[in-house]
Amino acid sequence: MAFTKDEKQKMLEQYESWLSKSQAVFLLQYGKMTMKEVDGMRAKAREVGAEMHVVKNTLFGLLLEKIGVDGKKYMEQTTLVGFAFNDAPALAKVVNDATKGDVFKVKGGLLGKQVLTAADVKALADMPPLPVVRAQLLGVLSAPASKLVRTINEPARGLAAVVKAHSDKEGAPAEAAAEA
Count of CB atoms within 10 A of residue 94's CB? Predict the structure, then answer.
C-alpha cells in the first residue's frame, strides 16, 4: 500500500512522539505471526505500561538515523517495536517471553540513547521488577536507621530489664508469705 508524503510525515511524527516518551525501545522481527499472537503481545505490553507497534522500516530507520543509531542494521525484514514508557525491564520480560517460540526474534533495542543487542535485552529481562528493586533499595537505606534506633534503645531496655528483675526479686518473698 502506497502512502502519500503527508501520511508518511504523520507516521514519522507519531514514531518520534513514541520514541521521545519511551525509556526503552525493543525491536523484534516477526515471521510466522498471526493476529492473535500480535494482539496477545500487545495486551501483555499494555499490562506493563508499554505499547507494541508494527512500523514502516524505512520511516523508523530514518528516525533511528536521526538520533544517531545505524537504522539499516535493525530495519531488515518485518519489525515490531515495543515502546517502554514506564518500566523497561518489565517490557523486556514480555519481549523475552515472546521470543521463546519461533514467531518473534529480538533484533535489538535502545535504552535511552544506548544501543542494546539481543543479549542485552535478555539481561535486562532478567532484572527484578521495579517494585522489587524499590523494596530492596528501601531495605538497604533503612537498615542503618533501624540499627541506630536499636543501639539508642539498648541502654533503656537493659535498665528496664534490671528494674523488672529487681521488682520480681522483691515481690517474690512477699508473695511467698501471702501464700503461706
Answer: 24
Residues comprising the chain, all counted: 180
Mean pLDDT by 10 residues, the chain (180 residues): 83 88 86 80 89 86 81 76 87 85 80 83 80 84 79 81 83 57
Nearest to 117 by CA among 66, 41, 125: 125
Please state, as a whole number, how many other Cβ atoms lie within 10 Å of the Cβ of residue 151: 9
Q: In this predicted structure, what is the pLDDT of residue 172?
A: 61
Taking the C-alpha atoms of residue 86 and residue 67, their distance in angstroms, rounded to an integer, is: 21
Q: What pLDDT score does 43 carry? A: 92
Assess contact for 147 and 141: CB atoms under 8 A: no
C-alpha 69/C-alpha 72 separation (Å) is 9
Lookup result for grid cell 542494546: 116
State the DSSP H helix or E strand holding residue 127, giving kind and residue range, or none if neither: none
Quick one: which of 98, 99, 135, 92 has its CA closest to 116? 92
Return d(Cα 118, Cα 20) in angstroms, integer: 22
Please state the pTM of the whole predicted model.
Answer: 0.67
Residues in Cβ contact with 62 at an 8 Å cutoff, skipping those fewer than 6 apart = 12, 71
